[in-house]
Amino acid sequence: MAELAALGLASNIVQLVQFGSSLFAKTRQIAHSAHGVGEEEIEIEIIAKDLQALHLKVKQNDARLGNSPPDATLNELRRACCHIADSLLSIITDLKSQNPQGNKWGSFKQAVRMVRKEKDIRALEKRLAKLQTQIGTHLITMLSSQQSSIVSYLERLNKNTIRLEMTTTHNIDLLRAELLDVLKQAPSEISSLPLAHVSDKLADLSREGSSLEKQQEILDTLDFREMDSRYSSIKKEHEETFQWIFKNPDLGFFEWLKTGNGVFWIEGKAGSGKSTLIKYLVKADYTRAALREWAGDCQLLMASHFFWAGGSTMQKSQEGLLRTILFQVLRKYPNLLPNVCVKRWKNEKQPYSSNWDYDELVETLDLISRQTLSHTRFCFFVDGLDEFSGHQQSLVELVNNVATSPSIKICVSSRPWNPFVKAFDSKVPQLKLETLTKGDIQKYVDDKLSTRLSSADYGTDERREIAEQIVSRARGVFLWVYLVIDSLLRGLDEGDDIKDMRRRLDCLPDDLEDFFKRILLTIDKVYLEQTAKIFLIMLNSRESLPAMAFHYLEQEDIDTQYALKAPIEEMPEDERERISQKTKIRINARCRDLLEVTIYPSAELFRKYQVSFLHRTVRDFFLETTAINDILKPATNASFDPHLSLCRMMLSVAKITPRSKPKASERLGKEMMESAFIYEREQIREHQPSPQGLEEFILLDELQRVWKEQSCELYRSRWITDVVDPLESDRKAHQVDDKEFLRVSIRMGLLLYVRHRLGREPKSLEGGRARLYLLYSLAAPFEGSFGPPDQGARYPELELLHLFLEEKHLDPNEQAGDETVWTLCVKYALSHKIATVEYSSKRICGAMKLLLKHGADPNARCWHPGDGKTTISILQGLYPTQATAFHQLANTNLSGLLELPAPESPQRRKKSPIRALMDRFRSKD
Prior knowledge:
By secondary structure, this protein is of the alpha/beta class. Helix content is 59%, strand content 6%.
């Protein structure tokens, strides 16, 4: 924002110079006018007020620029400009005192002579002319030099526009070019610049930059890293397949695109190609042409979301769906942002909250549909409703509610599960995919087999017979066909004749699960242990992994300490490429077709080669059958732990990350900490938080060293909590140190490691920031990973809160800036009121009860967004079914404030409710 302030300052300086120059020019005009005073009278009060207003504008830039302005020369010009304005105001004040009867005079110079200020005026004129020349020269440098912070800032805005794929009407480059044209037209006559034009263009540039920056910041809060990853990982459809969906009028889909409304449901069995079809529809020209007919004279916008059960939380949640849709809409029409995100747009302070609750997301989508009802139509494609991780009925209700808008229609796909059958079957237009893909499967089989079989001298009848058998047995399941074809082609490579091919085809099971089991049982026994380790690691990872990580897995057989011993040293790009290619081949040999290494040419660093499951059904096969216990675990030794192995792998990859890419190291470290979190939960669940946990502690300590040496900077607003930290109101990043890494560990839910660090570094709880540990511990990065709590009342994600309240005796009523930690916690609850996520609501409700139980003040007032209500009334409104329980806790808490606490340790007495209450009364004296 400092760069925008600098542009505004430059505009104000030019305005002030223009005013002074115009004033002196007007004086000369009057002095030489034959009319004297008459029509050329000057009103002294207006001059004084205008000059004071301009002077104030220039001075107000002090606050915006701060103590370290981005442009030191501009700052000097500001001081010079203010000094001239002060002198001119002083002269005008004298003139006013010499003219007590009225405030108009004719000749300014005549008036000056009256007060003997002509010499001073001439000096001011010269200084003003010199200042104008300096400003013109500096503006050229400021707007053209690559070393200029303004140029860097404008280029950054342009890069962000490209990164976010925004369609914007902002003319930043054009305004900058126009300014430079004016400034460079006649450098020798720079003192005669068209100042009014320059000032207006500078103001426009500042205003346009500010608006664009706000748009980008709000879009960034909607964006998330995995938004496009599922779409990118879906295989492209085979040539000339799926065209029937547009050409067969009996299906009704093409007609629905052109004239229909509401919901269209594509149902299909697992592996039938639903995701591939939706991806095809999203990018097909036929789709867009038909929708344009529906939109008529209105603008058309398409958006899509692909749920992914094996992905991150955002890839399988309603929040992810809504954020994806809103992001795609608003980057196309960013000018809607001031009207549909009013609070965020008006928020002058930084940072904008990165958290969007469910209500705000739905409200924004509703505002968009109403804002654009008369001139825009939307068609949304949502794939994989069955891969949504929450309550499916709530997702159905959301889809139906959104589709009630006459400007929105939605095409969805899913397996024929009961909630979707009940909601859509016979109620909305639909098609059953596996009954329609026989021709597509025939094309695929012919294309993949015909050339190879004909070159092997197989007869036409033999080729037809094999192809027909595959098509018949497929029953519309494309995934089965893909696996069968691959097996047959592999047999051809090994010299199979027609009899071998028939036997191979006869041996292949029709059921996908049986097929997967057969593939596993045919893997070379030499590879079986490595295969089992790879699958177990992938099953315990929350998303796809870089192929480079599996290069390091093989080092574990030689030395489990390899990750700790490895130096922090960047790996050359050509070496990374060579190893990734080699690892791709090795994974293909060890995991056959069940895992695949996808290459993303445009991705950077370790995201170029990504390992993922071939299909969701493969992952489901392992998780929903006994394959893990029957096949994978027996192939590994008892000491193998996939979570620790994954920690070592990601740490090793982080160590070879270029220092110029600290964000990549940060992402890898985050994935490592996710694995550490799951490892800790497994240890706790099995009641084994023993010395075995020490290796995790050492690995995390090493990650801190890596981040520190690579100069990683962690943005607290992203890493710690979505509630604005009152002691850190800016958005600047923080260098990694002991305390910063501890805060990140709290945010990531690492209970055992945090307890270990606090025991090792007891002074970590000293100082102002420790009070916010309670707030940080409310965050639950992987909530619900282990289901609701057992018969006990504790949620696994709240163990850190118990640690700080029960063991470390932190006081929720301590001040944190203008608020208390407790009121910030209530705001956190307000910002996470996602009605459809029952687990989240219960967990946060439990946290609020726990804080009240440990002395939180129920009558503390929460001014925003609670509008000055007491915290207890806010919580009772937020959780109405628990209103009585909150009332009882509040009464118990308040009555406890009137009783002296029983003798306890000094630290505990110091943090007691009565002590806190007494301290508050004393502070008012």
